Amino acid sequence: MDDIHRIVDPGPDFHVTSLATHVSMEKSESKELLKKQGKVLDELQQRLYGHARHSLLIVFQAMDAAGKDSTIRAVFSGMNPQGFLVSSFKQPTSRELAHDYLWRISRQLPMRGKIGVFNRSHYEEVLVCKVHPEYITYQNLPDVYNVSDIYPEFYQRRYRQINDFERHLHENGYTIIKFFLNVSREEQEKRFLSRMTRPEKHWKFSMGDLEERQLWPSYMDAYSDAIKNTSKPHAPWYAIPADDKDYMRATVSRIVMSTMQEMDLEYPEVTAKQIQEIEEARKILENEKVKSK
Fold it and tell me: CB-based contacts of 10: which residues, under 8 Å, 6+ apart?
């Protein structure tokens, strides 16, 4: 799919700071697009579920306050929960740390016919763990006891592992979309202040958010390296301007819709025997209706 926000073959000099963070859209236009696209997504989800041979995996990554939660809620509110699952990946548990880093990811993959949304994902391993390399030392790796043991090629190896993992999924029926919600530092400041000044948003704020904000340049470098090394034709990254939430939500919805349309989903074919059974069942019900009169 040709899309202005799709990152195709980023060169060695690619950096996320060169990408747009703000594109405006009227709230009324966004709501109308979400409503219209939502109806199409509902139909496409039914086809995906009925066909039951493909899966859709949608990854969201972003800095704090970019709007991951609200975008997921706005875009997918009309989805049938029976075929839809949102998974959030926070700090790994002791059990998760006792396995390889992709173990907890694999456990949350959607089954055939279903849609899985990852609110943060395996990319935390090359984002937050790159900004905080000490987190790697908690993973009980055989060759990493201290930060000094993290050799220069370590993250290149992880990019390769992630690419191999996503290629494996693609070859086994998964369609993958990865969204980087690109919020500016200035807009993040406004949203943090909103959380501080509005009592109903106090629960969203943490001092840790400000501590991570001080590491903004390091995070931008980590996002740039991750996208540059893992945006592939079978698992592309889309960088969505996130300063205007209305534009962001409508754009994410459009890309998901277009991607599912390209999956060429059809309802399963009905056999001659099934058609015969349907006809027999119809006659039975019609006879019941006649007898009840």
Answer: 227, 228, 231
Residue pLDDT, tens place only, 36-76: 999 999 999 999 999 999 999 999 999 999 999 999 999 99
Superfamily of domain 6-291: P-loop containing nucleotide triphosphate hydrolases (3.40.50.300)
Q: What is the pLDDT of residue 283?
A: 87
The phi and psi torsions of 176 (rounded to 5 degrees) equal -120, 130
CB 127 within 8 A of CB 223: yes
DSSP character string of 57-92:
EEEEEESTTS-HHHHHHHHHTTS-GGGEEEEE--SP
Average pLDDT of the segment spanning 188-207: 90
At 85-123, the pLDDT tens digits run 999 999 999 999 999 999 999 999 999 999 999 999 999
Structural tokens at position 115: 């849609």
End-to-end alpha carbon distance in the chain: 56
* Tokens representing residue 110 in the block: 């959607």
Residue 59's DSSP bridge partners are 118, 178
Is 249 strand, coil or helix?
helix
Contact 89, 120 (CB under 8 A): yes
pLDDT band at 270 (very low <50, low <70, confident <90, very high): confident
Pairing assessment for the beta strands 6-7 and 115-119 based on DSSP bridges:
unpaired
Ordered alpha helix ranges (H), the chain: 27-51, 68-76, 94-97, 103-106, 128-131, 154-171, 185-197, 207-213, 216-230, 245-262, 272-291
